[in-house]
Design goal:
5-stranded mixed β-sheet, about 25% strand, single chain, globular, about 110 residues
């Protein structure tokens, strides 16, 4: 997962890729640390054109998290074609994430492999 800290990094990621998943979490958030590698693996194996990123809201990314309205952890934000698409907050499963990604991912990358 790409680690991002600044608004410029987030904007570049969103505008530079058709599909972006950002996990807003924290170094001291046990749930965040447990789900982070699973989300990275999900992106790699099932959605290879989805760019996965991480913002540590407890160490370095506080301003970015606040500007994105992230005040509890974890939060997963999805962007497709530069636009916010879905946001999963606190209690979500990998199946919830998969379902949120499948349809828009298929439409954005239809026929592109």
């Amino acid at each position: 997962m790409h680690q991002i800290v600044t608004h410029a990094e987030l904007d570049a990621l969103i505008t530079g890729h058709g599909a972006v998943m950002v996990l807003f979490g924290g170094k001291h958030c046990g749930v965040c640390q447990a789900i982070k590698p699973r989300l990275a693996r999900l992106a790699e194996t099932e959605f290879p054109r989805l760019v996965a990123a991480w913002v540590d809201c407890q160490q370095g990314g506080e301003a970015l998290c606040a500007s994105q309205g992230v005040f509890s952890l974890p939060v997963l934000q999805l962007w497709f074609e530069g636009r916010p698409f879905d946001r999963l907050v606190r209690a979500f499963s990998l199946d919830d994430v998969r379902r949120a990604i499948e349809r828009p991912y298929g439409l954005v990358f239809q026929g592109q492999g």
